[in-house]
Amino acid sequence: MRQLSRETIDQLQRLAAVYKETNERLMEVLLEMQKLTDNCFDRETLGVVSDAMGIPESKMYDYITFYSRFSTEKRGKYIIRMCKSAPCHVCGAREVARSICDYLEVEPGDTTDDGLFTVEFCECIGLCESSPSVMINDETYSDLTPDKIRGILDYYRKEVSP
Ligand code: FES
Questions:
Q1: Running DSSP on this structure, what letter comes out for residue 81?
Q2: pLDDT tens-digit profile of 129-161?
Q3: What would the pLDDT profile of 74-93 be if each residue is shown by its tens digit?
Q4: What CA–CA distances, in Å, run from 8 to 4, 15, 21, 125?
Q5: Which of 21, 24, 49, 101 has the largest count of CB atoms under 10 Å?
Q6: Domain total in the chain
Q7: Ligand 1 centroid vs 128 CA: distance in angstroms?
């Protein structure tokens, strides 16, 4: 079982203090927290966060598991969300999704062996006018083709490689 470092706990507590000051922006604060914890709220993280925020763990768990942008399972550094809603679907989202999965040698829901990418389907991300679209962490990419998305993934791979 993972043990959060003192530094990570301190960072989580600092973010919790931001939330406690206003009781607003819970989603944004939790998304920032998730970046510090392998893109997931496992049991240990949930305990630390609920204590720091003064929110019961069961309530926090309900919130985390309701929204698809959060996970209780460890995920990759980059979360690829492939829109599967109708406007993207009719514009070639299926081919783009296949290209992503083939390039990374995973199936939807999987994380690559190097821990870099997790691939997920999602509903509309609000970019229907330039379908098909995906999100990689907070960045959005539109008007995609199978070739274009492979180039983007290549960039991410090179960006993080030594
Ligand atoms: S349907 Fe894909 S972005 Fe809206």
A1: E
A2: 999 999 999 899 999 999 999 999 999 998 765
A3: 899 999 999 999 999 999 99
A4: 6, 11, 20, 30
A5: 49
A6: 2
A7: 4
